[in-house]
Amino acid sequence: MTYPQRSIGPFTVSAIGLGCMNLNHAYGTPPDTATALALLNTALDLGCSLLDTAALYGSGNNERLLAQGVMHRRAEFTLSSKCVLDMIDGKRGLDGSPAAIAKTVEGSLSRLGTDHIDLVYLHRLDKRVAIEESVGALVRLKEAGKIGAIGLSEMSAATIRRAHAVHPIAAVQTEYSPAVRNPEVAVLAACNELGIGFVAFSPVARGLLAGAVRDDTYEAGDIRAMMPRFVAPFLSRNLEIVARFERIAADAGLTPAQLSLGWVLAQGETIVPIPGTRSIAHLTENMAAATKPLGSDVLAAVDALFPPNALDGARYPAMMQAQIDTELLAGETLA
């Protein structure tokens, strides 16, 4: 059986892609190299044909991992990476200037061991630089043959429209899951109107909707320890909702992750979720979600459980929220 496919801009990709970030970045101790390489190759074996990385992840080591592990299978997948967020003088930095974008993309090409990246996103909006200038830098890289298409990450409908007026945008990437509904404010409508694909990162809510969060004792280096909704006093209330979500999944014969991914897929034919995982068993479970369509009764039950702002606590800590351009939900807390 051919794995289900979807279109994102000019690309035809698997209905579920793979976010590669947590193989090197943000969720505590990364797996050893052999485990990470096995997971990447198993993803391709299962039919996954969209791999998502970024210059920032692991200070470039995520891109190096892909170079080591799967670039010999380059014809089997669409490769996406990101710029603007990068390591600058050894620290995480935000720079949307054309010079910084060109430098970051050149670094990505070198680390990936390639002369062409299919899709490059502006990782965040640098409010000090006009979006038109940042997009223009990617247009020049496209004209030089170094990238194939342009994307935006965590940006508002207004910014998307300004960017799209400079050059067609292929994809917008933003957090989206039953528990995180910000794209429904305006971004999804803008993407549908302009013919832009939508890539949903954290489609299982950073593990919350995949049975991976039971308390707030996280490993050192786990980004969730800084996120208000993943720690006390908010997490206990959120886990009560998660328990009800897990009962819906069990009644439907699905794992919680499959229910979450199936819900995301059901929101539109041009939406592609990119869950990340370090487990081949979880990878297999996730990929199977595209072959398990949800009934209207199940979708309705999830929607009833997760109205906008269902979770307590802010989505990001203040420092990270300052770099987020995506619209807030009505009444959304920032603390």
Describe the structure.
InterPro entries: Aldo-Keto_reductase (IPR050791), NAD(P)_OxRdtase_dom_sf (IPR036812), NADP_OxRdtase_dom (IPR023210). It comes from Sphingomonas psychrolutea. Keywords: Oxidoreductase. The protein has a single domain (5-321), classed as TIM Barrel (Alpha-Beta Barrel). It is 36% helix and 16% strand. The chain is built from eleven helices and twelve strands. The protein has helices spanning 33-45, 61-69, 98-112, 131-143, 157-166, 187-194, 235-251, 256-266, 280-288, 296-305, 318-321; strands spanning 5-8, 11-14, 18-19, 50-52, 78-83, 85-88, 91-94, 117-122, 147-153, 171-175, 197-201, 271-273. It has an eight-stranded parallel β-sheet. Strands 1-2 form a two-stranded antiparallel ribbon. The chain has a two-stranded antiparallel ribbon with strand order 6-7. Helix 1 runs parallel beside helix 9, helix 4 (131-143) crosses helix 5 (157-166) and helix 5 (157-166) packs parallel to helix 6. The mean pLDDT is 97.
Give short descriptive properties of this protein.
two-stranded antiparallel ribbon, eight-stranded parallel beta sheet, 335 residues, alpha/beta
With strands numbered from the N-terminus, the spatial order across the biggest sheet is 3-4-5-8-9-10-11-12
How far from one another are the termini? 47 Å
- The fraction of residues in strands falls at 15-25%
Q: Identify the CATH homologous superfamily.
A: NADP-dependent oxidoreductase domain
* Helix run count: 11
Summed over residues and divided by their number, the pLDDT gives a mean of 97
Domain tally: 1
Helix content: 25-40%
Low-confidence stretches: none
Tell me, what is the CATH class? Alpha Beta
What is the rounded Rg?
19 Å
Structure classification: alpha/beta
Describe the sheet with the most strands: 8 strands, parallel
Number of strands: 12
What is the CATH architecture assignment? Answer: Alpha-Beta Barrel
Shape: globular
